[in-house]
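Researcher: I'd like a structural prediction for the single chain below. Treat it as a standalone chain; there are no partners to consider.
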Amino acid sequence: MAEFVTVDRAEPGIAVLRFARPPMNLIDLDAALELAAAAERIGADPRVRAVVVYGDERVFSAGDEVAELARLSAEQARAMAADLQGALGCLARLPQPTVAAISGYCLGAGLELALGADRRIVGDNVKLGLPQIHTGLIPLAGIRRLSLLIGPARAKDLVYTGRFVDPTEAAALGLVDEVVAPDDVYTAALAWARRFATGPARALAAAKRVFEAGTHGHDRARGEWAALFETEDRSVGTRSYLAAGPGAAEFVGH
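Model: Treating it as a single chain, here is the predicted structure.
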């Protein structure tokens, strides 16, 4: 039984992965592993077409559980590094379109987790950053993904300085995709997820795998594209497009 993570079905086709570890939703190894296990279950559920990741109304996550890190020896850190890194990247492995609904603070490991989502929607009072450098450490899971998202120079600025950014700067950097009133974060995330609740699940998952392939994405796209010709959604989609144009298909998800 998970202590910090719940999964709710907000609407048909939409799962809400919620993380609650009061008061600041700090992420230690146990919490990260719970998030990863829940994400894996969601990813394997064909009824789920889109995912919202949410902390609570006050805070998404204020970052790493530094008290845990302070107790680790170098040997212990080496032993847990792969598990923690993999867990913080769990959202990127979800086959469904995924949106992080971010309130309050999104720092450190919390931002690394959110970087794995396809979209980040934040309240206009949010602070974001990767302050691990101030503890003598570096982000374990976020450097490469941040660099791909906002470019190496801007990523180095945020990682080397550990500074916080406000929503206006975060949007200008491309770190977040939408800024709304704090009370509207969750509903805006649901509205985005709703667009995919009846979408072509296999094609969306294929597109995500191509994006995740990075520099090998061009090669990966060939296999993914060809494999979609075996799906029912491809048959439904092409026939519908020819008959009625885009947006009219009723996809079945396989």
